[in-house]
């Protein structure tokens, strides 16, 4: 999760929207969060697992909304979970920064 200490500044994207400036550390942290997320929480019979997974997914999506790199990372992990691609590698996203 991005903390206030991780935020370097804002920048304007081409549409004039504010977007977080991210570093390789932020990308590595978000990549780890995506990697460790229980993508199958919705199939659990245990309500506490479902609730925890739902909360974690919401946090991942909130973070994805702060920067186009995070959004692309989430999208690629979702494709991986749907078996539309191989597991994402961190270097795919570090090159975008």
Characterization of this structure:
With 97 residues, this protein is mainly α. Helices cover 51% and strands 6% of the residues. It has four helices and two strands, in the order E-E-H-H-H-H. It has a two-stranded antiparallel sheet. A hairpin with a 5-residue loop joins strand 1 (10-12) and strand 2 (18-20). Helix 1 packs parallel to helix 3 (68-81) and helix 2 crosses helix 3. The chain is globular and about 40 Å long.
Give the overall silhouette. Answer: globular
Q: Helical residue percent?
A: 40-55%
Radius of gyration, CA atoms, in whole angstroms: 14 Å
Average residue-wise pLDDT = 83
Helix count equals: 4
List the uncertain runs.
1-14
How much strand?
A: 5-15%
**Largest sheet, order of strands side by side?**
1-2
Number of strands: 2
Q: What is the H/E string?
A: EEHHHH
Oligomer: single chain
| Tally of separate domains | 1
Brief characterization of the structure:
The protein has 97 residues and is mostly helical. The chain has helices at residues 24-36, 47-64, 68-81, 91-94, and strands at 10-12, 18-20.
Comma- or semicolon-separated keywords:
4 helices, mainly alpha, single chain, two-stranded antiparallel sheet
Write the layout of secondary structure elements.
Elements: E1 10-12, E2 18-20, H1 24-36, H2 47-64, H3 68-81, H4 91-94
Antiparallel strand pairs: 1-2
